[in-house]
Amino acid sequence: MPRVLLVEDDPFVREGVQLGLRRRGHDVRAAGTGEDGLAALAEFRPDLLLLDLMLPGMTGVEVCRQVRAHSQLPIIMLTARGDDFDVVIGLEAGADDYIVKPARTEVIDARIRAVLRRMDDGSTGRPAIEVYGDLTIDRVGLTVSKAGRPLTLAPSELRLLLHLSAAPEQVFSRQQLLENVWEHTFHADGRLVDACVARLRGKVEDEVGNPRYVQTLRGFGYRFGPL
C-alpha cells in the first residue's frame, strides 16, 4: 500500500484527494501547511510527497527545497492553472513531476503509481555496472558515483540518466523522454525534462555550460555522450 503524504491548504481539495486516493489503495496522511507537512515526514515516513505549490506561510517550493536538502523522496507538486513561473521554480527545486488542479483522482493515482513504479533493474541484459569516464552507473544497485564519490540523485534524475545512458549517442526528443521516463502518454510539458536535465547536469558534469555526459542537440532533444 503506497504511503502518500498530501500537503494541501484547501480543506475541500485536501479531503477529496485524500478520500479518493484511499479508495484506490493508498495510505494517505494529510497536512494543511508546509510546517505541518515537514513535521509529518519523519513520523509518517511516506513513499511519496504530494505537495501543493501555493501554501500559506512556508510555500510548497520552500518545502520542496528543505526535503531535497536531506532526502530523495519522490515529490509531485500540485499547481493551479496559470502558475507557470512557479511551476518552473518548483521543478528546479527538485520536484519529480507536477499536476494541474483541478485533477481527477484517477489522474493523480496514475501519476503517483508511475513515479513509484520500479525502475529498470538491469534485467535487459546490460552490464550491471557501467563506467563512462569518471562516472559509474550501477543499474542493479541503482547508484551513481563520480570519481568514486556517490551522487545523490532524485528519482526522476536517476531514471533520466538510466534511460539516456542505456542508448549512448541516441538522441531522444522531449516527448520521447516524457513517455519513457515520466510515463506521460499525452503531449506533456517539456519543462519537466529541461528542469530535470539542468539538475542532473549540476551533479554529473564538471562544467554545466560544457556538458560531457548529458548533451543537447538543439531542435532535436538530448543524448548521452559522446564518450
TrEMBL record:
Q: Could you read off the lineage of the organism from its UniProt record? A: Bacteria, Bacillati, Actinomycetota, Actinomycetes, Kitasatosporales
**Residue(s) carrying 4-aspartylphosphate:** D52
| An annotated GO BP | regulation of DNA-templated transcription
- List, alphabetically, the SMART domains matched: REC, Trans_reg_C
Key words, A-Z: DNA-binding, Phosphoprotein, Transcription, Transcription regulation, Two-component regulatory system
Q: Which residues form the Response regulatory domain?
A: 3-116
Q: Per its UniProt record, what PROSITE patterns does this chain match?
A: OMPR_PHOB (PS51755), RESPONSE_REGULATORY (PS50110)
Signal peptide (UniProt feature, chain positions): none
Q: Which Pfam families match?
A: Response_reg (PF00072), Trans_reg_C (PF00486)
Q: Which PANTHER family match?
A: DNA-BINDING DUAL MASTER TRANSCRIPTIONAL REGULATOR RPAA (PTHR48111:SF21), REGULATOR OF RPOS (PTHR48111)
Boundaries of each OmpR/PhoB-type domain copy? 127-226
What GO terms are given for molecular function? phosphorelay response regulator activity; transcription cis-regulatory region binding
The identity of this protein, by name, is Response regulator transcription factor
Q: What is the native source organism of this protein?
A: Streptomyces parvus
Return the annotated DNA-binding positions. 127-226
Recorded GO cellular component terms are:
cytosol; protein-DNA complex
